[in-house]
């Protein structure tokens, strides 16, 4: 099993959610985060003084899936959120040892 | 006062009271999220302590009848001798002026934001009120400066120049915020700033039009002037920054509105026609540049009390020397401005009055802050400053949801 983590532009969240649903993904977790990559931060001006805002608002979305589904889901995600401009974000995949559905005690594949 | 006058003065008094919470939001939004409650508390504290002090001794020292031209006496201490035999006129005036007394030290809170011990603020407010506000109030309203002929309709000199220069003295003793000016301290909530600005503008109609202390034509003129100068100030600031920095900003609009309101305060009941537009526009443009002085000169006036209130107050007060128009208010006792055939005499009195207020307020505030630094200390520890004053000083947090910032 794998955990797919995507950090994306906030306005793309709805597109991503609908694309994942259409691809059969039944659950996901979303967090409001702040960060920067190559895009860097941005500048804000208050009373004529510029402030560098290093950490820009992003959305972090996490999906658990079977190892076999990873490529398909990642490509659905990329299609949904890519704008081609700097700041589109990143997707990474990590190994997951075990998963349990708390209510029923089901394990691993049954719990996804 | 007749019943209409009393109704207007009482209504105005309530409007002016509302300005202190408005100021708290105006400043609080500009402050950081971890210090916003400290800012609100510094302002609301003025509404707790000043009314008490005002009726005990403040009003008496500021306005009780006496031959002394520098300070009143104790004749009206504990409201002694103020009853309803005059239909309540004097009592209404005591209440109305008490609101002004409350907001004046509150103005200083914006300069000392983010780093002043609350215990020091708690001592500063009552002491400053008696040592600085009360004598200066007397000088202009019934004392030596007023008798010489300087004009200050609703407190441009007594309140805004006075609080502004005191703010400068206070931050010179207090020192800079950690990280100033390299580290950014952007506003944590612009919507709060805009809400506060709206409340201030609303309350300012009581502040200025109420200062006629009668429901008459002068009050109407002051009302209209307050409306127009604020708009002209906001418009000018936004146009200047749009041209200079590339963007029209909410904070620019808010700052310009307040600058226009500050500048029209000394003039509100003395000018007419298009003068309020000129006064507001002048303040908006001048203050838009004045707020940048702190970085150039190197004092940390956190939320620009000096740049907006002292500079805006000076602009308005000096322009009274040009625009004062007695023809418009027959029977009123004041002088002609330069543009109405009065020569330079009134302008000279305006310069003298502001210079005198600055010459008193600055050193006395400086000594007061130095005395507080020697005794209870004025500055929070570096740990408290980085943790945030809300939690460290008040055991409260403004925002329990919404992440780390």
Report on this structure.
The complex is a heterodimer of chains A (112) and B (405). By secondary structure, chain A is an alpha+beta fold. Chain A has helices at residues 13-22, 70-81; strands at 2-8, 29-35, 42-46, 49-53, 56-65, 89-95. A 4-stranded antiparallel beta sheet of chain A has the order 2-5-1-6, covered by helices on one side. Chain A has a two-stranded antiparallel ribbon with strand order 3-4. In chain A, helix 1 (13-22) runs antiparallel to helix 2 (70-81). Chain A is elongated and about 60 Å long. Chain B has 405 residues and is mostly helical. At the A-B interface, strand 3 and strand 4 of A face helix 8 and helix 9 of B.
Q: In terms of per-residue confidence, which ranges of chain B show pLDDT below 50 for 5 or more consecutive residues? A: none
Give start-end ranges of low-pLDDT stretches of chain A. Answer: none
Estimate the strand proportion of chain A: 35-45%
Strand content range of chain B: under 5%
Biggest pleated-sheet summary of chain B = none
Summary tags:
heterodimer; A: alpha+beta; four-stranded antiparallel sheet; two-stranded antiparallel sheet; B: 405 residues; mainly alpha; 15 helices; globular
Task: Give a concise summary.
Chain A has 112 residues and is of the alpha+beta class.
SSE layout and pairings?
The complex is a heterodimer of chains A (112) and B (405).
Chain A: E1 2-8, H1 13-22, E2 29-35, E3 42-46, E4 49-53, E5 56-65, H2 70-81, E6 89-95
Antiparallel strand pairs in A: 1-5, 1-6, 2-5, 3-4
Helix pairs in contact in A: 1-2
Chain B: H1 3-30, H2 36-63, H3 89-108, H4 118-140, H5 144-148, H6 156-174, H7 190-209, H8 217-245, H9 250-264, H10 275-290, H11 293-297, H12 305-323, H13 345-375, H14 382-387, H15 389-394
Helix pairs in contact in B: 1-2, 1-3, 1-7, 2-3, 2-4, 3-4, 3-6, 4-6, 4-13, 6-12, 6-13, 7-8, 7-9, 8-9, 8-10, 9-10, 9-12, 10-12, 12-13
């Amino acid at each position: 099993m794998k955990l797919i983590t995507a950090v994306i532009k906030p306005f793309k969240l709805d597109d991503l959610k609908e694309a994942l649903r259409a691809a059969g993904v039944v659950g996901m977790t979303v967090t409001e985060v702040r960060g920067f990559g190559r895009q860097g931060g941005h500048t804000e001006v208050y009373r004529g003084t510029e402030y560098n805002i290093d950490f820009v608002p992003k959305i972090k979305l996490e999906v658990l899936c079977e190892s076999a589904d990873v490529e398909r889901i990642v490509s659905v995600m990329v299609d949904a959120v890519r704008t081609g401009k700097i700041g589109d974000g990143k997707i990474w995949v990590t190994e997951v040892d075990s998963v349990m559905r708390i209510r029923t005690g089901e394990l691993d594949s049954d719990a996804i | 006062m007749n019943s209409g006058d009393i109704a207007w003065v009482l209504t105005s008094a309530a409007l002016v009271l509302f300005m202190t919470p408005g100021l708290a939001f105006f400043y609080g939004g500009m402050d950081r999220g971890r210090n916003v409650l400290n800012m609100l508390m510094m302002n609301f504290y003025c509404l707790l302590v000043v009314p008490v002090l005002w009726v005990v001794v403040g009003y008496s020292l500021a306005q009780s009848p006496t031959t002394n031209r520098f300070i009143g006496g104790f004749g009206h201490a504990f409201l002694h001798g103020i009853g309803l035999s005059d239909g309540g006129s004097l009592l209404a005036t005591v209440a109305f002026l008490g609101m002004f007394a409350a907001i004046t030290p509150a103005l200083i809170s914006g300069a000392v934001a983010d780093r002043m011990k609350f215990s020091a603020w708690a001592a500063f407010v009552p002491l400053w009120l008696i040592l600085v506000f009360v004598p200066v109030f007397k000088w202009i309203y019934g004392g030596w400066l007023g008798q010489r002929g300087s004009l200050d309709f609703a407190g441009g000199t007594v309140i805004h120049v006075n609080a502004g220069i005191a703010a400068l003295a206070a931050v010179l003793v207090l020192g800079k915020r950690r990280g100033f000016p390299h580290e950014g301290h952007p506003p944590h909530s612009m919507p709060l700033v805009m809400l506060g600005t709206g409340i201030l503008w609303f309350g300012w109609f009581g502040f200025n039009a109420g200062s006629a202390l009668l429901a008459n034509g002068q009050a109407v003129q002051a009302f209209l002037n307050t409306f127009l100068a604020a708009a002209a100030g906001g418009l000018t600031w936004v146009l200047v920054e749009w041209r200079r920095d590339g963007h029209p900003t909410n904070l620019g609009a808010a700052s310009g509105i307040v600058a226009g309101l500050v500048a029209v305060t000394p003039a509100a009941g003395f000018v007419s026609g298009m003068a309020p537009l000129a006064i507001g526009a002048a303040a908006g443009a001048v203050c838009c540049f004045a707020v940048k002085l702190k970085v150039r000169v190197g004092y940390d006036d956190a939320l620009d009390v000096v740049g907006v209130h002292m500079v805006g107050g000076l602009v308005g007060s000096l322009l009274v020397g040009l625009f004062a128009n007695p023809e418009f208010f027959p029977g009123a006792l004041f002088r002609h401005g330069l543009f109405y055939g009065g020569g330079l005499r009134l302008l000279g009195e305006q310069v003298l009055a502001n210079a005198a207020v600055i010459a008193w307020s600055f050193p006395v505030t400086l000594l007061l802050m130095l005395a507080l630094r020697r005794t209870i200390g004025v500055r929070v520890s570096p740990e408290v400053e980085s943790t945030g004053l809300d939690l460290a000083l008040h055991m409260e947090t403004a925002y329990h949801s919404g992440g780390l910032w």
